[in-house]
Amino acid sequence: MRKLLPLVALLFSAGLSSPAWSAPADDYQAAYAKAEVAIRQADALKNQWTTTLSELAAAKKAADAGDFDAAVAHARQAEALANASIAQAKEQESAWTKAVIR
Question: What are the extents of the domains in the chain?
Answer without folding.
Answer: 24-93
